[in-house]
Amino acid sequence: MSDRETDVREIIQNNIRNKKGIVNKIMPVFFFIMASVSVLTTIGIIVTLVTDAYKFFSAVGLSEIFSTRLAPLRAEDPTFGILPLINGTIIITAIAMLVAIPLGLTAALYLSQFASPRVRKTVKPILEVLAGIPTIVYGFFAYTFVTPMLMSLIPTLESKNALSPGIVMGIMIIPLVASLSEDAMNAVPEILKEGSLALGSTKLEVAIKVVIPSAISGIIASFVLAISRAIGETMIVTIASGSSKAFTFDITRSMQTMTSYIVEFTSGDAGSGTTGYYSLYAVGLILLSFTLVMNLIAQYISRKYREEY
Domain for residue 73, yes or no? Predict the structure, then answer.
């Protein structure tokens, strides 16, 4: 072994010995503690919801909980049926996805396959600005602009309704669908696109028949995550959809979602320790279950239909 190789080995060993200081022993522990914060926070939220929701489910029978009668603030014989809340949440979310999915997917397809680099650098930041607008601004936009415009087209539309917040919520979610779908489309290898073009396919045919099927797992995952975002939205529905607790499928009427119900009660309408107070935690637990299921579905779809190149 040459003297030069010996010197290099000694330098390496000295570096290794010098790095065994107190900082290198503390940092892994510090990183573990920081990584555990999110896990412990999640556990704390679940424990809080389950503990207080149990008090509600112990006081109210399942037949009443899964009914269409919801009048929690009634002085005599209040009822706590959650089906109107679930119904309102699902209907407004469905309206939002009918807006977000086609517009978001089209935007992603254009940005990833048809737009020039210059146009992409200009349009994408503008699109993503929508994601940075506070949701309360969207709520006032739905109530003061979209609703009056829709009322001129639909005379029977109420001032508080499900249609207007659903449309505006869909606009808010467009950047989420577009961004995640575009990332999935950009991950498709160029060789697949070039091979299709070489066989005589048009650019549109490549986009529809090659890019979308190849990126379908990421696209569907973006849809599912967007649904989770819509289910958990609060301020838009609180301002624009009203607080009607009627069980209805009429989107021109006021509806209340699970999130707006929580906002209404946390404003001080329900006294601490009452059944109505604990109903907040029951609704919160159901809402958490909804979003958890949607996230698990998104992960399952991503794993099952993932294309590996």
Answer: no
CA distance 99 to 251: 15
Distances (CA, A) of 258 to 96, 113, 240: 16, 39, 14
Q: Are 251 and 91 in contact (CB under 8 A)?
A: yes
Helix (H) or strand (E) holding 70: strand 70-71
Same domain, 286 and 171: yes
Residues 46 and 100 in one domain: no
Question: Which H or E element spans position 100?
Answer: helix 83-109
Q: What distance in Å separates the CA atoms of residue 309 and residue 303, rounded to the nearest whole number?
A: 14
Same domain for 96 and 152, yes or no, is yes
User: In the chain, how many domains are there?
Assistant: 2
State the DSSP code for 133: S
Question: Hey, what are 160's tokens?
Answer: 């508080």
Helix, strand, coil distribution of the chain in percent, nearest 5: 75, 0, 25
pLDDT digit string, tens, across residues 223-275? 888 888 888 888 888 888 888 888 888 888 888 888 888 888 776 666 676 77
Tokens representing 190 are 């160029």
Structural tokens at position 121: 């650098």
φ and ψ at 271, to 5 degrees? -75, 145
pLDDT < 70 stretches in the chain: 1-8, 11-24, 75, 267-271, 273, 305-309
> What six digits make up the tokens of 224?
């599912």
Stated pTM of the model: 0.82
- For 259, phi then psi, to 5°, come to -70, -40
What's the domain range around 36?
Answer: 3-59
Question: Based on the domain organization, do 35 and 170 belong to the same domain?
Answer: no
69 falls within a domain: no
Partnered with residue 71 across adjacent β-strands are 79
The helix or strand, by DSSP H or E, that contains position 71, with its residue range, turns out to be strand 70-71
CATH code for the domain of 266:
1.10.3720.10
Token couple for 29: 């522990």
